[in-house]
Design goal:
The protein is α+β, with helices and mostly antiparallel strands. It has a single domain, classed as Creatinase/methionine aminopeptidase superfamily (Creatine Amidinohydrolase). Helices cover about 30% and strands about 25% of the residues. The protein has a four-stranded antiparallel β-sheet with strand order 2-3-6-7. Strands 9-10-13-14 form a four-stranded antiparallel β-sheet, covered by helices on one side. A three-stranded antiparallel β-sheet has the order 1-4-5, with helices on one face. Strand 4 and strand 5 form a beta hairpin. Helix 1 packs across helix 2. The longest helix has 24 residues. The model has no long low-confidence stretch (mean pLDDT about 95).
């Protein structure tokens, strides 16, 4: 398990990312674009004291509208100028870093009547958001330190299929270890036999679309095992 210092320092960065996402939900307007939302998010991160990102040169990856279901690496990402409008889904993925400590947090925001809503009327919005929240809850209950990355991959993709969703990640990944160097990440992917308890922290970030649906949903958090061997979220 990670040290108390590692937990405390990573938590500071992750809580800053969560706070920015909370603030951002109130700041998105119909005239915003991926580019303007990414700029707002980065400005908020800088106000919180976090100016650097571990994810290439992409502190905020924003997808909306026609790109809602696009899976793209931060290495290749360029924000677009499509506007939010009155009905949309905006997904924001933040990756701040301070020294060797990372944050990694993503949320999808349903837009109705031009504003983010926490109680969407559109059934597809409700189903996608509720499914991901339930997946995170279930994952925390079943995963143990000896669970492998590959086993979590198999479980997550089975749950996605059983519930009528499609994994949108271009490699079908659903997360990765939190490392000092981004190139050292271990991925939650098929046949990875490394135990989750062998790394200090890992992210869980399923990115899904309902079969036949229009919108792509993502929810991401960072997790670690405590002294009792139970999973906690930063």
């Amino acid at each position: 398990m990670p040290t108390e210092l590692q937990i405390a320092e990573h938590k500071k960065v992750q809580l800053a990312a969560k706070s920015v996402l909370d603030r951002l939900a109130e700041a998105i307007t119909p005239d915003d674009t991926e580019k303007s939302i990414a700029a707002k998010a980065y400005d908020m991160m800088k106000e919180s004291g976090y100016t650097e990102t571990w994810y290439y040169d992409c502190p905020a990856l924003v997808l909306l509208g026609s790109r809602s279901c696009v899976s793209i690496s931060g290495r290749d990402y360029q924000p677009c100028e499509e506007t939010v409008g009155m009905s949309n889904l905006v997904t924001v993925d933040l990756s701040p870093t301070h020294q060797r400590y990372w944050g990694d947090c993503a949320r999808s925001f349903p837009i109705e009547n031009g504003r983010v809503t926490h109680s969407p009327q559109l059934l597809e919005f409700r189903n996608g958001l509720n499914f991901l929240e339930q997946m995170h809850t279930q994952m925390q209950k079943i995963v143990r330190p000896n669970t492998t990355f590959g086993q979590l991959f198999d479980w997550a993709n089975m749950r996605i299929r059983q519930n009528g969703f499609v994994n949108l990640d271009y490699k079908n990944n659903v997360g990765h270890s939190i490392a000092i160097d981004r190139d050292d990440r271990q991925y939650i992917q098929s046949n990875n036999q490394l135990a989750l308890g062998e790394v200090p922290f890992f992210s869980f970030e399923p990115f899904v679309r309902l079969k036949g649906g229009k919108w792509g949903f993502k929810r991401e958090g960072i997790f670690f095992f405590n002294e009792a061997g139970l999973l906690e979220e930063l």
